[in-house]
């Protein structure tokens, strides 16, 4: 889990700062990971053992502390519980007495939530491990429908949120050499909702937000993810491939093929370390706007808001970063990111990229600091985008409570 606490777009001409609170929580990729719970910020954490089951509770009150320093967020529900970030995780290692594992996790952010239930039966060594997964999530669709502001350094709410319900099976293939493979087949039901939680079929400009044109999309998705990694004392190479195929079980369900890859190469250059990464992808067939590749933001092109560069049927992003030690726990960094939608923005239904004035190509560069401690890794990045807008990022990752 990684939480990016604050982003400060800086306007030197007007000598003022706009504060924006971001929470980025990765979805559960390893539902049976027995690693300790992760706690960020100020709050309460408790582990409870009930028989063989273990319950982890983590409540984060960080937003309460930051609220006095911030401008109002882009959406305010007014409900007191909306200001709390927390998680609840229940693990049972032997549900029916045959080493069956059950994992139930609930995560709540400021504007998003995620509930996951996963069940795994024991399988013989060397046979693909099966996990039965049910997941429900709600999250703002900022990458495609967000409105770029402050010279594209931030993305405000476009009034579209995605409510997803999925159920299916994950198959984790036994590792072979440097490759690992996961295959899944799941039914997905996607319902766009507005900020008030009501189902919608069109955005604020009156364009459809689903492929079907109705209030929801349904699909069966066959997905395969492959990961290659190789490392030694001086370098490492990594490749991630993801292919998704929409299967038209019913005539109204989506049929598409979506491909994405991430290739990374790192190497030591004396005491420094250089990391280069290339990300690309494309989708053919049926497509809803929310399936577009969003370009811009932390983890994509720094200096821009989430999806503020573009949202297209295809994308290509290059990230370069050089880190060098300053002392035992502190590192300096210089970086440059760039990316493009390869001219495919107009191929997305409703053309949200053009309507929101996204350029389709952008670059950002800057410098930062990395502080490693027993509490986790703290990161500060100062980025400048193509419109000379300056943005300061504060990040915390791998924080242990």
From TrEMBL:
The keyword Transcription regulation does not apply. Residues 94-397 form the Bacterial surface antigen (D15) domain. GO terms for biological process: chloroplast organization; embryo development ending in seed dormancy. Keywords: Membrane, Plastid, Plastid outer membrane. It comes from the Eukaryota. Pfam families: Omp85. GO terms for cellular component: chloroplast outer membrane. It is found in: Plastid, Chloroplast outer membrane. PANTHER family: OUTER ENVELOPE PROTEIN 36, CHLOROPLASTIC-RELATED, SORTING AND ASSEMBLY MACHINERY SAMM50 PROTEIN FAMILY MEMBER. This is Bacterial surface antigen (D15) domain-containing protein. The lineage of its organism: Eukaryota, Viridiplantae, Streptophyta, Embryophyta, Tracheophyta.
